[in-house]
Amino acid sequence: MTTAVTNYSNSALTGSSSSATQTATSALTSDFETFLRLMTTQAKYQDPLEPMDSSDYTAQLAQFSSVEQQVLTNDTLASMLSQLALTNMSQLTGWVGKEVRAQAAAYFDGSTPVTVAPNPAAVADKVQMVIYDKTDAKVGTIELPVSAEPYEWDGTDGEGNALPKGSYTFVIESYSKDEKVLAEVAEVYGRVKETQNVEGEVALILESGTAILATSVTALRNSESS
Length: 226
Prior knowledge:
Elements: H1 10-44, H2 54-91, E1 99-103, E2 106-108, E3 114-117, E4 126-132, E5 138-144, E6 151-153, E7 166-176, E8 179-185, E9 187-198, E10 201-206, E11 211-213, E12 219-221
Antiparallel strand pairs: 1-9, 1-12, 2-7, 3-6, 3-9, 4-5, 4-7, 7-8, 9-10, 10-11
Helix pairs in contact: 1-2
């Protein structure tokens, strides 16, 4: 089930990422200084009759330097990916106000039908759509045709009772000879409210309050209310 996003703060995520990078850098500096002190102490207290080969010092220093460079390279790559994500996010700002289709919760405003895209199993001889509210409580079941054609949900629970406005998730259950063979969250259209950069990936915040990755979108259309 898709969980609604609350307090979804990009600044908080960015701050967390920055703090982690600073911590890793500080730890690396501390480790390097500790390594130098240990190497100095080792040289100071070595047996003068059997001194350590200088090549051993060189090998230890080279090994630590290699690890240090790998960490710094990773930091550089992370920074580059972050900049790329910002560029992608800027390009996707044109999606704000439009409707995208993906596996997510849909927002029902109390009157406008919600377009649900079922994808039943190929072997199914019976298909039903189970409706869940934002608390993951089951609030209705509707039998659907065995087809992948979009279904316009009118906000009722399957028995003609109107459901209140809010966020709903639709699970398509496929049956074959009365045995359930598949159950998956249906794709729905949701209006994009904003785009965010989350850990190097572009996330779309929908009107229902859920967040999805831009890469999970399978269709895009103009908002019917625009």
